Amino acid sequence: MRASLIILAFFLLHLSAATWPYPNSTNVTTFFTSLTNNSNYQSYVGYINVTDSGSNIFYQLVTANNSNLNDTTKPLLVWLQGGPGCSSLFGLYTEIGPYIIGSDLSLIMNNNTYAQDNHLLFVEQPIGVGFSNISPQDQAPNYTTVAAKHFETFLVNFFKVYSFSTLASNDLYLIGESYAGHYIPAFASQIIQNKAVNNLTTLQGVIIGDGWTDPERQLNGYDSYAYSIGLISNVRRNLYRDTQNNILQDIINGQFVEASTLFDFITGTDPQFNQSIPNVAGNVNVYNYRQYNYSGLDGPLGTWLNSSNVKNNFTIYPSTFNWLSCNNSMYYNFYDDISRSYKQNISFLLENTRVLLYNGQNDIIVNTPSVENWIYSLEWSRSLDFLQTPKQNWLVNKTVVGTVKQLNPLTFVLVKNAGHMVPTDQPINALNMVNRWLNNNTNWSN
Asked: Which is nearest to 88 in space by CA: 200, 202, 206, 178?
C-alpha cells in the first residue's frame, strides 16, 4: 500500500508537466564555462519526445575535449544509469563527466573524464526518471522491453535534431552500470535487430559495469559472499540461503514480483528491511563493503540540479519540478522486471558486436562471484574457448589494479579496490580500462 501511494504521487508530479512544449536543444556551454572557467567542452541539454502523446526523455550531451558537434572522429558513448529509476545525470556529475559536483555545490573539472576523447550523451530514461516526463495519455513503463522501444525512438529522434545530425555517423557505444545490466542488453538488441527500420549507425560495442543481468544466478550468492567477508554470522548465512532457495523457486515459477521482494529482504537499505545485509551489518554500504554509514545517492547533486539557476538555464518546466537521483516509485514499478534475466541478450550481442563487462571488487549488491557465475554460463560461439582463456593481470603505472579475461568479442575485467561505482572509486584505472578496450588493446600487462 505504501509503495502504491509513492508511485501514484510520483507519477502525478510528472504528469503535471507533460503538456509543456519542450525544446529539442538548449546550448548551455556558456553557462558551464562561467561555472568552471573552462571552455574545453560544449554542452547541450533538452527533451526528446518518444511517444505520439508527448512523453519525453531529458538528456545532456557533452562534446569531447576541445572538440565540437562536427567532429565525426570521436566515438559517441551513451551513458545509462541503473536503479531502475536512477538518473544518468548522476553518472555525469559524480562519475565520468568533465564536471564533478563538490560538497560546496561548485563544479570541479574531472581530469579522468571519459570526455577526453569521446562525446558523451547522458540519457534520463525510462520516461518519468529525472527531468523526463510522462504524458497523461501514457502509462509509466514497468519492463525493460518497453523502455527499450522508447530508447530506440529517443536515439532516432535525437539524431533528427539539426544540431546533432552530424553525430549520426560517429562510432556508437552504449555504456552504463548496475541496472544497465538489464537496459543495455535489451536496448542494444533492439537497435541491432531493428536496424533496417531505425537506420541507426552500426553499434560498435557495449560496456556494462557491475551489471544486474541474470538474477537467477546473481540472487543466489549473497549468503556465501557476505559470510566470506565477515559481515554476517553463520546463522544468518543459513537464513539467506533458505531465502535464496525461495527466490530461485519463485523465478522458476514465474513469480518475479515475489522474487524481487525477497531480493530486497536480503539487500534493501530501507529500515523496513531490518533483516538485510546493510541493516544487520552496521549500515554497511551495500555498494562497497569497505564503507559504512552510507547516506544514499542524493546530496549536493540534487541541491544543485534543483536550484533555480540550473533549472532556468536548462529550461526546466515547471520551476518547482523536483529532480531526484533515484525514484523509489520507478523501482517498485519495475518489480516484475527486476528478477527477469537478460543474459540471452548478451549471447545475441556477442554474435554481433563487442562486449566489455567489468566489476568492482568490493561491491556487495552486484558482487563479482555471482557476476562470474552468469558470465561463465553464457552460451555463444566461443563460450568454451572463453572458459579456457586464462586471466591476465592488468597493470597501470606498473601496479596490478585488476585482472582481465579476454577473448574477443568478450572482455571481463575485475577492478581492484572499487565498489559498485567503479569510475568514482578508481577514476584513473576506470579511464585506463575504457581507453584500452575502445582501442582494441589486447595487452593489459604493460
From this structure: 178
Place 268 in a pLDDT band, splitting at 50, 70 and 90.
confident
Exposure string of 6-23, with b = 16+ CB inside 10 Å and e = fewer, is: bbeebbebbbebbebebe
Distance CA 138, CA 143 (A): 14
The rounded percent of the chain whose pLDDT value lies above 90 is 83
Is 14 part of the annotated catalytic residue set?
no
Task: Judge whether 35 and 70 are in contact, CB under 8 Å.
Answer: no
Query: Cell for 80?
Result: 545509462
Which residues 6+ apart lie within 8 Å of 411 measured at CB?
354, 355, 356, 357, 404, 405, 437
- What is the per-residue pLDDT for 54? 87
> Among the options 132, 329, 420, 425, which is catalytic?
420
Q: What DSSP designation does 161 have?
A: S
pLDDT at residue 297, rounded to an integer: 61
Name the pairing type of β-strands 203-209 and 172-177: parallel
**pTM (predicted TM-score):** 0.93
Catalytic-residue membership of 178: yes
Give strand pairing partners of 361. none
Sign of the Cα pseudo-torsion (49, 176, 299, 141, in order): positive
What phi and psi values does residue 324 have, to the nearest 5 degrees? Answer: -125, 140
Q: What does the alpha-carbon distance between residue 215 and residue 421 come to, in Å, rounded to a whole number?
A: 19
Is 14 within 8 Å of 300 (Cβ atoms)?
A: no
Distance, CA of 266 to chain centre:
22
CA distances (Å), origin 193, targets 160, 197, 345, 427, 443: 21, 9, 11, 34, 32
Cis peptide, bond prior to residue 136, ω within 30 of zero: no
Q: How many CB atoms lie within 10 A of CB 306?
A: 16
- β-sheet bridge partners, residue 62: 43, 120
CA dihedral 88, 220, 294, 113 (to 10 degrees): -40
Dist CA 118 CA 113 (whole Å)? 9
What is the CB neighbour count within 10 angstroms for residue 181? 27
Q: Which structural domains are found in the chain, ordered by start?
A: 2-209+299-328 (3.40.50.1820), 220-297 (no CATH), 343-438 (3.40.50.12670)
- Annotated catalytic residue within 25, 135, 178, 339: 178
Indicate which residue of 223, 250, 337, 363 is catalytic: 363
* C-alpha R_g of the chain: 21
